Amino acid sequence: MRIRVLKFGGTSVDTHEHRLMAARKVIQCIESGARPVVVVSAIGRRGAPYATDTLVELLTAIDPTIPPAPRERDLMMACGEIISTVIMAQTLRTLGYAAVALTGNQAGIITDNEFGNARILEIHPETILRCLERGWIPVVAGFQGITRPDEVFTDGSITTLGRGGSDTTAAALGAALRAEAVEIYTDVNGVKTADPDFVPDAPTLPEVTYEEVAEIAHQGARVLHPRAAEIAMDYGIPLWVKCTFTDEEGTRVVADANGQRRITGVMHTGKLSYLSFYIPYPEHKAQLELEVYRLMARLGVNLQGIGVDEEGFGFAFPREHWHAVRNTLDGLIIPLGTPSWFYLFQFGEAPSQVCQIQRDMLHKAGLGERIRTVPITIAEGCTMVSLIAHGYSHQPGIFAELHRTLAEVGIPIWQTADSELSLSCIIPESEVEKAVRVLHDRFALDAVAR
Fold this sequence. Notes:
Carbamate kinase, eight-stranded mixed beta sheet, 13 helices, Alpha-Beta Plaits, 3 domains, alpha/beta, nine-stranded mixed beta sheet
């Protein structure tokens, strides 16, 4: 049986007209001789009645000072995809095709207990396969799964997979079903060399590697979640990024066959905040840095633009996590050494009430002389632009050209970072559109896709 997994994002299923266009892609798959398994996201984006963010706001509006329990929050967040699944299945039925809606649980998706950012542990695809054998189109709710049973919840608990989780659902189902391809449908014609809002004529890349598309996603493009690319790469699943609303071929994601050096795009992240930590204590600096990274990982905060020098370190993170980050770090005490030094983390020159309470507590315990303050400064209003540059991480000329290009148009660089696949700069948020355009021009990215 030839199986293809087709995933449709929120903007592909947000109106009846769009759902009909998505349904046509499903019908074309059937006409090609393959059996489609459809994965859908919640309908629309923030502000739409059944969008995930809208559902969460129903919870937080009850009392903004009391956060919802993670289990119940996931239960609410999963509703958007379930609604979308039923509506998409009904759309296909009205066109004369037998379709059945499946929740993540009914599709056999088993996850760990990390509510809000669960990992898929295994998939039992028997229900999906039985549907296919009967000639039905399974329409699966993306972004969700269920935990294994425990002594309290003997049927398991619904979990969500984090941002971009529907892409992950599609890739994981593709692996479990041994699909011949996974097709990710969105509102753009594949993977672009830049954000078309900033570079309207940015061309579509006909082909990128798994590593490149994962890096493109990490650096801000919303065409595909990096975890989905990693799953597809691990299992060797052919992957496509296509547009629901056109018949263009889109972008094919392939294995890196030759390791050729090339620059394929300039990407940008959303709104960031940048924290700087001043730690002039070399004997404990590395331990303090590691502990902060562990705390951020526990919060599920993705760090970007990490910078380290002799007297401290810093990093950028998505501004949406600001309150959680501040609540975790402000007044934090980390004891190190023998006898112990008590490292007290403090935002700004004037301590907050929480920080002052922590300081007073140490003084009352007779430990005032063992306090070492770790000042934290914050820079708001920044973002990160990145060149997707495979094989250029050890080529200083490219970084110099990037610096020169931004300097020529008066864009300051606050921090730099690089990886095997990208060269990045933290810059003021107000300059991001200009930065993307000048870098796209300087590195002739309009010719890359030809």
